[in-house]
Design brief:
Blueprint: E1 3-7, H1 10-19, H2 21-25, E2 29-31, H3 34-38, E3 47-52, H4 59-64, E4 66-71, E5 77-80, H5 83-89, E6 94-101, E7 111-118, H6 123-143, E8 156-158
Parallel strand pairs: 1-2, 1-3, 3-4, 5-8
Antiparallel strand pairs: 4-6, 6-7
Helix pairs in contact: 1-6
Length: 168
Amino acid sequence: MKYAIACKSDSFWHLLQEKSPALLNNATYICKSQDDLLLLSKKNIDLIFFPHWSWIVSNKLIEEFTCICFHSTPLPYGRGGSPIQNMVLNGHQTTQVVALKMTNQLDAGPIYLRQDVSLLGGGEEVFRRIYLSVISMMKKLLHELPTPMPQIGDVTLFERRKKGAKQY
């Protein structure tokens, strides 16, 4: 399966190189910016992974490719911005990393996989666990892409945390 990885986090790239260099090296394209995504149109790839991305992806790209993003709340609870910070501020000690099919609605697509992750410890520790979960999910999805299941339950929206606001 030919795939691209679109990610803005240097920490994720370093961990991916450390823990799964084959996953990184076998990617057909690597995208670290919005401009890199523009190069993917009409390319011969099957899917695009978005392990840590905060920019809106064009409907054109979502319609052209299978786009899979990862969100760190038990969707549909926690759609929107700053999922980890909002989960911690809401008193949660665990969360889920969810692999979902991107649609034209933010964090609303059907779900491929879920994996529980602890929120205990410092921020770097938590993000490392989340990134390791994402890497594991990417490998599973490349091995077998299940039919994604619709989100079930009440939608709870999170707002992106602002600079200067109480942070995690």
